[in-house]
Amino acid sequence: MANFSRDDEAMLQAMLRQLFQSVKEKITGAPSLECAEEILLHLEETDENFHNYEFVKYLRQYICNTLGSMIEEEMEKCTSDQNQGEESGYDTVVQHVTKKTQESKEYKEMMHSLKNIMIVVVESMINKFEEDELRIQERQKKLQKEKSNSYCTDNCSDSDSSFNQSYKFCQGKIQLILDQLDPGQPKEVRYEALQTLCSAPPSDVLNCENWTTLCEKLTVSLADPDPVFSDRILKFYAQTFTLSPLHMTKEIYASLAKHLELYFLSRENHVPTLSAGVDVTNPHVIRLLKKVRLLNEYQKEVPSFWIRHPEKYMEEIVESTLSLLSVKHDQSHLVSRKILDPIYFLALVDAKAVWFKKWMHAYYSRTILLRLLEKKYKSLITTAVQQCVQYFELCETVKADEILRQSKHYGNKQKNFYYSGQDLQYIYFIHSLCLLGRLLFYTQGRKLFPIKLKNKKDSVSLTDLLVLFTQLIYYSPSCPKTTSAAHSENYSPASMVTEVLRILCDQKECAIECLYNNTVIEALLQPVHNLMKGTEAASHCSETALIHIADILARIASVEEGLILLLYGENVSSSEESPTGAHVIAQFSKKLLDEDSPIFSGSEMLPVVKGAFISVCRQIYGTCEGLQVLIPYSLHESVAKAWKKTCLLSERIPTPVEGSDSVSSVSQESQNIMAWEENLLDDLLNFAATPKGLLLLQKTGAINECVTLMFNRYAKKLQISRHKKFGYGVVVAQVASTAAGAIALQNSGFISALITELWANLECGRDDVRVTHPRSTPVDPIDRSCQKPFLVLVNLLSYPAVYELVGNQELPNKAEYSLREVPTCLTDIIDRLIILNSEAKIRSLFNYEQSHIFGLRLLSVICCNLDTLLLLEAQYQVSEMLLNAQEENTLETSENCRDFIIDGLSVERNHVLVRINLIGGPLERILPPRVLEKGDDPYPWPMFSSYPLPNCYLSEVTRNVDTKHDNDLSKLLLCLKITDKQTEWIENFRRQFCKMMKTKPDVISGAALVELLEKFVFHLSEASSECYFPSVEYTATDANVKSESLSSVQQLGIKMAVRYGTSLNLLKDDAENHLSWVLKHCERFLKQQQAPIKSSLLCLQESYAGHDWFVSSLFMIMLGDKEKTFKFLQQFSRLLTSAFLWLPRLHISRYLPVDIVESGIHPVYFCSTHYIEMLLKAEVPLVFSAFHMSGFAPSQICLQWVTQCFWNYLDWIEICHYIATCVFLGPDYQVYICIAIFKHLQQDILQHTQTQDLQVFLKEEALHGFRVSDYFEYMEILEQNYRPALLRDMQNIRVQST
Predict the structure, then answer these.
(1) Pairing of β 890-894 and β 897-900
(2) Could you give the dihedral angle defined by the CA atoms of residues 1207, 1209, 1210 and 1211, in that order, rounded to the nearest 10 degrees?
(3) What is the rounded distance in angstroms from the CA atom of residue 734 to the CA atom of residue 1198?
(4) Is the N-terminal amide bond of 774 cis, ω within 30° of 0?
(5) Which residues pair with 897 in a beta bridge?
(6) How far is 722 from 505, CA to CA, in rounded Å?
(7) Which of 385, 580, 936, 1087 is deepest in the core (most CB within 10 A)?
(8) CA dist., res. 831 & res. 845, Å (int)
(9) CA 132 to chain centre
(10) In 44-68, which positions are buried (b, 16+ CB within 10 angstroms) versus exposed (e)?
(11) Element (DSSP H or E) covering residue 420
C-alpha cells in the first residue's frame, strides 16, 4: 500500500472500466444481482478474451511478483521427492503446491494488500459515479423546466441503467400514480400515469411498498372499456413478464388470471355464447383474446426458469391458472345459450395444449400440477373427457361433411374471422384430446382415472378412454386426399388422435398400462373385422383411418409386450376360439395383397393401405415366434406375387414424350409404382431376419433383388426400418449363413464395396487427411478404422459362404502387383493379406505388418470353422505357407543353430499354427497368447517351423477315459431289455439316463457309452413307430467302394480326426484307413437316398461339401471299430435325430421337398437354429439383445457348433454327452443344449458386446466351464415348455410346404 500512488489508482480504474465495458451486456442481461455475480465468477469459462483484459494481466503479474519465488521453491521440492522414488502425478503436485501456497503467510499478506488497494479504487469510482449522477439530475431538471408540464414520452433506452432510473422513481411517485389511476380521474391524467408507469423500471415498481395496492388498481384497470388504456396496461404486463424475475412476474400473472376469472364470472361483460360463436373482428373479443394470448405466452415460457425459484412461486402460478380454467357458468339455461368458458379461448390460442405439455415435462412442476388436479381441480379433467365423449357422439349422429368442415375451417383459420359454436366445440375437443394424451403419458396422471361423468352411470376408465380415442380414428371423418395443406391435415381428428396414440406407444410403461390389452386391440381391429365381413359399418371407414390404425399396430408390434399380445392375446395359455390380433392382421393383409376383396377397389390410396398393413405384418414375421404364427398364411408368396405383378406394370409404363401433357402424370405414376415395388421388396427382405424366414425368402426367388435393395440402402446409410433399433448386421449374418445368400451378397456388390472400404482404411488412409498430418502408428493389432469391416467380414464368412465364394478358385499369385490394384473379392483378400508367399505381395503393401496381422487375425477366426480350415488347407496349403514364413523369420546365432525372431507377425503366426493343427476342447489343448509378457523372457512359448508341434501345447488333463461300470450303469442297461409295452422301456431308459447324467455323468463314456448307443438305437430302429425314415437296403461291398475316392477336404478331415483320437488314446494303428472305409460306405449309402438336382450353387453340384464330423465323432466313440460304426449309422439313419445330428444325412435328400433341397438350406438351420433364436429371446433375453446390438445372428454360431459336433469348443467327454443326450432324449435337446450354452456364457457375451468383439469371442473361444450335465434340470424345464411345438416342426421337415 505504501507504494500505491494516484497514478496507480487511475490506471486500475481504467482497467476496471475496460473490464466492465466488455461484460456490460452479460451483466445487464442478468435477471438478478445474484446472477450477475455468478456471471463474473465464471467469466474465465465463458469469455474467450478473459486473459486479454488489462486488469487480469495486472492481477497475474501482481501474484507472480509476490508469490512466484515461493511457488518455484515448492515445485523444486516436489520434483526432488519424485526423483527419490515417491511417485505422484502432475495433478497431485499442483494440488500440493496450491495448498502450501494458500496456507502461507505471504499469500495472506498479498490478499490483505490487494483487498485494501481494490477498496480504495472502487470507493473512488463510486464517488465519481454519484457526482456524475447529480450532474445528470440537475441537467434533467433544467430540461424539464424548459418543457411545458409534459412527461417524457420516450421509453427508457437501452443505454439507460436501472440504477439511473431508480434515483428518479421514488415512493412518492408511486403514490401519485396510484391516485392518478383512479377511475374517477380524467382520461388524460390516467393515460399520463400509465405512461409514467410504463417508462419506469419494472423491478422498481414491483419492489415498492405500495405494490399490492398498485396491483389491485391495475387489475381493475384491465377491465377499462377504453381499448387504448387496456392495451397500455397489457403492454406494461408484457414488459414486466419479459424483464422481471419470477417472484415479481408471478404476481402480475396472478393478477391477469384473476382479472380474467372475474371477467368471465361477471354477467355484465360481453362474453360470447356458444350459439353466437366468436367473431375475432369484434373489439371486445380482440381485447379478450389479447389477454388470453399474453397469459398463454407466459405459460409456455415460465417452465424454462421456474425451477430456479422456490416451489411456492410455481404453485401460485399453477393454481391461478387452474382456478381460471375451472370457471364454469350456470348450466341451468339451454346449451345453445351457454356462455363460453375461459378454456374455449385458451384452446383458440393454443389448440394443442402446448402449455400443458411444457408444465408436465419436468417432475418439479408435474408433481404440483397433478396434486392440484387431483385435490381441487379434477373437474378440469372431467370436462376434457366429457368433451371427447360429446364429440364422439356427435360423430355418430351428425353428417360427416359437417364435421369435416369444422376441422378444415380451423386448419385454415388464417383465412376466417368467425368461429361458429360447432367450430369452437371442435377446437375445444382438440385441446382436450392433447391435454388428456399428455396426462396419460405419466404414471401419476393415469392414477387420476377412472373419471366419473355427469349423466353417465359408469366411470370412464383408462381402457374406456383409449377405446374412445381409437374409435375416433375411424368414426370421425378424415380430410380428403386432395387437401395437402399442412394445417388441415394436422388438425383432422384422426391425425390428432393418432399423434396422441403414437406418443403413448413410444413410452413403454405407458403403452403396457394403456394400450396392451385385448379391449383396445379389438377396438383398433374393429374396422378391419367390418371390412372383412362386409358389414354396413365398413363403408364408414376411410383409407386414411386404416393407415392410422396400421401405424399404431406397427408400433405396438415393434415392442416385445405388444407383439406377444398380438400373437397370443392377454392370456397366452388360454385356448380361445376367436383369432388373435396377429391372425386378423395377416388375413386382412393377405386379402389386400391377393386383391381377393373389392375393398377400396381402384382407390389411389390402396397401395398405401396395403403397405401400412404389411408393415405391421413384417414387425411380426421379423421375429421367430411371430413367423411361426403367420406361416399358415404364406404371406411371402402373396408379397412376392404382388412384387412380380408390380415389376410387370413398371415395364409397361410408356416413355414420356417431351412437350406432351401426359409427361407429369406418367412420371408421377412411374414414381408411385417404383416406390410400391421397393416397398414390397423391403417387406420380403424382412423375412431374412430369421432362419426360417430366410428359407421362405429363397423360395420366392427374390433374394438377389432383396439383397441388392439392402446394399443400396446400406450404401446410402438409410435405416433398415423405422421401427428397428439396430442396423443391417443381423440380416447380413443370416443371409451369409446360406450359400444362395452369399452369392446374392456378392452379386449385389456388397462384398466388393466392403473389401474396397477395408482396403482404403488398411492401406490407403483417408483422402481428406492432409499430408502434413501423418497417421498415427496403430497400437492395436487391428486399427479402430478397420474394426467394423473386420467384424462384417467375420459375419460374412460362414462356411457356406466361403465354399461358394472360394471353392475351386485359385489364387492369382501374380509376379507383380500394382500399388493401385485394389482387391475386390474374397480370393483377393486371401491372396493379398493372408497368403503372402512372395516378395511381390509384400512389396505391394504400404503397411505390410499391420495388413498381414489383419489377414492372420481374419484367418484365425474363419479357421475356427473346421470345414473352412480344411477347404483353405486343401486349396491353398495355408499351414505350409505359415511354416515357411516362420522358417524365414529366423536369425542364425551360431553354427547349425537358428533362433526365431519374436515380432508381431511371428507371434500371430505361431498362435494360428497351433490353433489350426491341434484339435481339442478347453482342457485338451493350450493356445499360445498373442501378447508378450513382462520380464526377461517375454515369449516363453516355443516357435516351430515344422511338425510335430511341441509337447507343451498338448494338455495332460483328459487323456484317459473312464469306462468302468457301476450299479447305476447296470440299471441303465437293464432298461434296454424290451418289454411288451414299447413306450414303457423308452421312458424308463430316459428317466434313468437323466438321473445318471445329474449324478454320475463321467460314467457315460467309453465302452459303456458304446453299448448304450448300440442297444438303444438298435431297439428304436426295430420299432416302426419310432422310425422317421424308411429302411434302405444296402448291398455295396468293400470292393465296390474301394475304387471310390474321397474329396481332399474329407481326406484332410480324416487325418485331423485321427490325430485328435490318437491324442485321446481312443484310436490305434490303421485308424485312417478304417475311418476312410466308413466314410466311403456312408457316402455310397446316402447316395442311394439322394435326388440330384441342377443348381448353380456349388454346394449342390457334388457330394456334401464339408467333412462328416458326426461320423468321425462316432468312429472315435466306437473306439475305431469300423464295422460297428457303420452298422450303427445304418440303424441310426432311420431315426429323426439323424436328420439333425448327422448333417450329410439330408444332403440333396429325396426325403426333403424339392424347393428346400434347391435352396441349399439344411433343416438344422431353418428348424433347429430358428428355435434356438426363438427360445433365446424368451429364456435369455439379455443375450438375445446383445446379439442384435452386435449385429450378429445366434443361428450362425450355433450352425457352426452343431456342424462340427462342438469340436474345439467342448472337451471330448462333453461331445460324447451332447451326442448321447440328443440320441437318447430326442433331437430337440440339440436346441436346449445351445440355449444352456448361451445361458452359461451370458456374462461373457454381455462383456464382449461392450468391447465390440462378440463374433470373434464366440468363434475363437472354447466353451470354458460348460458341462452338459450341469444344465440337465434346466433343459428338462425347457423340454416341458417347448417340446410339443419343437418336435412337431422337426417332424414336418419332410412335408414342409410353406
Answers:
(1) antiparallel
(2) 70
(3) 12
(4) no
(5) 894
(6) 14
(7) 385
(8) 12
(9) 65
(10) eeebeeeeebebbeeeeeeeeebbe
(11) none
CA dist., res. 1173 & res. 1234, Å (int): 10
The whole-angstrom distance between residue 1214's C-alpha and the CA centroid of its chain comes to 37
Q: What is the model's pLDDT at position 1203?
A: 97
Query: Which position has the grid cell 478358385?
Result: 809
Phi, psi for residue 667 in degrees, rounded to 5: -60, -45
Long-range CB contact pairs, 1069-1072, < 8 A, 24+: 1071/1120
Distance (Å, rounded) from C-alpha 325 to C-alpha 379? 10
Residue 957: CB atoms within 10 A of its CB come to 10
Q: Which value, to the nearest 10 degrees, does the dihedral of the CA atoms of residues 416, 419, 420, 422 take?
A: 110
Burial of 777 (0-12, 13-18, 19+ CB in 10 A): exposed
DSSP bridge pairs for 460: 451
What is each CA distance from 870 to 307, 874, 882, 909, in whole angstroms?
Answer: 68, 6, 15, 18
- Write phi, then psi, for 891 (nearest 5 degrees): -130, 130
Q: What's the pLDDT at 959?
A: 42
Q: What is the rounded (10 degree) CA torsion for 999, 1002, 1006, 1010? A: 30
Q: Which residues contact 1200 (CB under 8 A, 6 or more apart)?
A: 798, 799, 864, 865, 1259
Report d(CA 712, CA 681) in Å as an integer: 12
Check if the beta carbon of residue 745 is closer than 8 Å to that of residue 797: no
Cβ neighbours of residue 1052 closer than 8 Å, sequence gap 6 or more: 870, 873, 874, 1107
- For 295-309, the pLDDT digits (tens) are 999 999 999 888 888
List Cα–Cα distances, 1140 to 699, 1110, 1165, 1167, 1271, in angstroms: 22, 10, 9, 9, 21
* Residue appearing with cell numbers 432383396: 706
Give the span between the Cα atoms of 253 and 503, in whole angstroms: 31
The C-alpha angle 16, 18, 23, rounded to 5 degrees, equals: 95
Under 8 Å between Cβ of 590 and 638: yes
pLDDT tens across 35-74, in order? 777 777 778 777 777 888 888 888 888 888 888 888 888 8
Q: CB–CB of 670/654 below 8 Å?
A: no
Sign of CA dihedral 549, 551, 555, 558: positive
d(CA 1073, CA 1122): 9
**What residues of the chain score a pLDDT lower than 50?**
86-87, 147-168, 332-334, 399-400, 413-414, 479-489, 663, 768-769, 771, 958-964, 1296-1298
| pLDDT value at residue 652 | 67
Pick from 1056, 957, 1053, 966: which is nearest to 1005 by CA? Answer: 966
CB crowding 509-545: b at 16 or more within 10 Å, else e? ebbebbbbbbebbbbbbbbbebbbeeeeeeeebbbbb
Closest by alpha carbon to 1027, among 1137, 1127, 1110, 1143?
A: 1137
**Could you tell me which residues are beta bridge partners of residue 898?**
892
Residue 32, CA distances (Å) to 16, 27, 29, 38, 305 in order: 21, 9, 9, 10, 13
Residue type, 996: M
User: Is the bond preceding 283 in cis, omega lying within 30 degrees of 0?
Assistant: no
Number of residues that this document lists for the chain? 1298
Amino acid letter for position 694: L
With b meaning 16 or more CB within 10 Å and e meaning fewer, what string describes 402-428?
A: ebbbbbbbbbebeeeeebbbbbbbbbb
> Distance (Å, rounded) from C-alpha 1131 to C-alpha 1292?
21
Alpha-carbon span 302 to 281, nearest angstrom: 30
Q: Residues 6 or more apart from 600 whose CB is under 8 A from it?
A: 543, 606, 609
